[in-house]
Amino acid sequence: MEQPAMAIDLSENAKDGLYIFLNVRNTLKIENPIQKIKEVADQVFEKSHDKQTQLTAKCEVKLFERKANFYMKSVDSHIKWVLSQSDLPSNWDPCLPEFPGYSQKFQTAYKTILKSDPPKICETLLKAPLEELEDTECVICSYEMDSFEGTLKCENCKRRYHDGCAKKWFKVKSTCPMCNESMLDEEEYPTLS
């Protein structure tokens, strides 16, 4: 006689995290990214008579496979980790690696040969470029920012700071307080046109 599956007692945060990862795993199973990259690369390989372009297509498959396999293993290990936790902090962030995309070289070859952009693979897993962070706290003074007016944004990490806080910070360091990317006071060092 089969044993009933053991119920896992997870907090709401842990259930939410598990739900995210199970959705990602389901997307990977349904969309089969490794099969898709092979199909896309085969189109380039078959239509091109240039050996270098054919080699680019072959290399793209190998590189994408390696990155996609790493991503899939990461999803599975995150699922196991969440299942081993009874609770997750409310500010927990499911930090997966970036889902692989095409290399610039392959995109150019595809566009040149097939006269269109290559189809997106697992589009829902591709991260849109982040323009603004949801977090609106100035990490220098720890106060919320009500609007973007009177703030300065680091173009690297997208974090915003109050102008006054940033000016004080720049007197000590000319880097972003969060990511250490070089930043300058725009009033003191205006952009040259």
From TrEMBL:
The keyword Membrane does not apply. This is RING-type domain-containing protein. InterPro entries: Znf_RING, Znf_RING/FYVE/PHD. Residues 138-180 form the RING-type domain. One of its GO terms (molecular function) is zinc ion binding. It holds the Pfam family zf-RING_2. GO terms for biological process: protein ubiquitination. It comes from Caenorhabditis brenneri (Nematode worm). The keyword Zinc-finger applies. Keywords: Metal-binding, Zinc, Zinc-finger.
